[in-house]
């Protein structure tokens, strides 16, 4: 009789554990807002990596099997970027953006082009008479990717994610103002990437749809960028500044930091925090840093 009671008790306990495990599984899944399903049933999440390449820019947008790279730092940063992407399991890159032909943005792109298959390449269309630019351009020609100069265009990646190129003009005297401007839209969250764009082009951009939750501050946080009228138009909650520790330019400049602080915008800096990763979770953005 006691054995029978034990068997009944064990049976009831086992059933309870099975039900509890199933309910817990669905609860955990339902709380994971950053997970979506693609057409093949593979789970995806959106992460934007602001890679610490010192005094330069390198931004990697990782969305399942769809990858976007914006710049790759200086010449000595190419291997760093390649290694970083390979550790993430990157096999190819759907869109590569070279914002403008300065070495601290395109210097590492020839290494990236040598290491990965690239589907689309977008740049400002403005050449330079430097070895760094020639190395980049030779690598572009060898890649046989779909090459385009920047123009108004939108890549509709899926129903949740789009990547937009915003054309601000091509007649600027300052090479920084020729930077390719891009905007990433994912669900309820937007990112704006500005390269080294300065205040002259910012005055053009305020007439366009540039509101964003996360702003990659122009020109490494220089006082020449992030004009107040531009900042008011973007109206970000967060700003990312990519710059090198104790760099000779003094980036980010005090004036820019004061504007951001006055607007209660939370600032992340690669010189202080290393690589910064923004993960979109539902209607929020979660940040992790190296330090």
Task: Give an overview of the whole structure.
It is a single chain. This protein is of the alpha/beta class and 291 residues long. It contains nine helices and 17 strands. The chain has helices at residues 2-31, 78-87, 103-106, 109-115, 131-143, 199-205, 228-234, 254-262, 270-273, and strands at residues 36-37, 43-44, 46-50, 59-63, 66-70, 92-98, 117-123, 146-149, 153-156, 161-166, 181-186, 189-193, 214-216, 238-241, 266-269, 276-281, 284-289. The strands form three sheets. It has an eight-stranded mixed β-sheet with strand order 8-7-6-5-4-3-16-17, covered by helices on one side. It has a seven-stranded mixed β-sheet with strand order 9-10-11-12-13-14-15. Strands 1-2 form a two-stranded antiparallel sheet.
């Amino acid at each position: 009789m006691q054995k029978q009671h034990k068997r009944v008790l064990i049976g009831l306990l086992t059933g309870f554990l099975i039900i509890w495990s199933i309910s817990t599984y669905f609860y955990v899944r339902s709380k994971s807002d950053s997970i979506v399903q693609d057409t093949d049933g593979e789970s995806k999440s959106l992460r934007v990596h602001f890679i610490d390449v010192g005094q330069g820019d390198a931004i990697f947008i990782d969305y399942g099997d769809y990858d976007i790279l914006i710049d790759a730092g200086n010449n000595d940063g190419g291997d760093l970027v390649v290694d970083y992407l390979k550790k993430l399991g990157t096999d190819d890159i759907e869109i590569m953006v070279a914002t403008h032909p300065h070495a601290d943005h395109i210097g590492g792109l020839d290494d990236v082009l040598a290491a990965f298959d690239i589907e689309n390449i977008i740049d400002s269309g403005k050449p330079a008479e430097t070895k760094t630019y020639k190395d980049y351009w030779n690598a572009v020609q060898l890649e046989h990717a779909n090459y385009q100069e920047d123009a108004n265009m939108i890549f509709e990646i899926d129903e949740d994610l789009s990547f937009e190129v915003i054309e601000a003009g091509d007649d600027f005297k300052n090479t920084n103002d020729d930077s390719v401007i891009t905007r990433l839209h994912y669900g309820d969250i937007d990112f704006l990437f500005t390269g080294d764009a300065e205040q002259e082009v910012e005055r053009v951009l305020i007439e366009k749809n540039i509101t964003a939750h996360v702003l990659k501050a122009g020109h490494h946080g220089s006082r020449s960028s992030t004009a107040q009228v531009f900042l008011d138009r973007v109206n970000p909650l967060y700003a990312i500044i990519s710059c090198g520790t104790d760099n000779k330019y003094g980036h980010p400049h005090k004036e820019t930091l004061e504007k951001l602080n006055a607007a209660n915008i939370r600032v992340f800096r690669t010189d202080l925090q290393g690589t910064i990763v923004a993960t979109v979770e539902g209607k929020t953005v979660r940040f992790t840093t190296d330090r």
